[in-house]
Design goal:
150 residues, single chain, mainly alpha, 0% strand
Length: 150
């Protein structure tokens, strides 16, 4: 059972990473209605994978692996978890923007996104990608037993 949860955790993490990369790449240009629809689908996949990642990750912390006591006394885990929460909150900004596009799309119009807003969305996605790299580093440190607070 622990292996199944580890697999789900990794699958959700890779799906989340892929979704952020796809959003970042697709936001290089003004969105057309078909592109905006695809971005909404990818953003939904990102949200679902983040939810699965959180639930499965917390299940692993409390019911499998080394136990909650170990993880909550490990600075690498605390950093990883804190970053995950911060990135999840940050990702609300692009999600709200993508949802706002729905009105224009229903009318068959191109979503109006200013160049400044596009730069902001890309900056947020850049920050999310950088945060994911730090999360991966923390995961590697945890796997090697580094970060235990005495």
């Amino acid at each position: 059972m622990a292996a199944a949860f580890a697999f789900l955790h990794h699958l959700a993490a890779f799906t989340l990473f892929a979704a952020v990369v796809v959003e970042f790449l697709w936001l290089k240009e003004q969105p057309t209605p078909p592109l905006a629809r695809r971005i909404l689908v990818v953003d939904a996949a990102l949200g679902i994978s983040a939810g699965v990642l959180l639930l499965v990750g917390l299940s692993r912390v409390f019911h499998f692996e080394k136990g909650a006591s170990y993880y909550f006394h490990n600075w690498a885990f605390l950093t990883k978890f804190s970053l995950f929460v911060m990135l999840a909150l940050l990702s609300i900004v692009p999600t709200r923007e993508f949802f706002a596009w729905r009105r224009a799309m229903k009318q068959g119009q191109v979503p109006a996104v200013t160049p400044e807003r596009m730069r902001t969305l890309r900056l947020i996605l850049h920050l999310e990608l950088a945060g994911i790299v730090v999360i991966i580093l923390c995961a590697a440190l945890m796997a090697k037993g580094i970060g235990v607070i005495a």
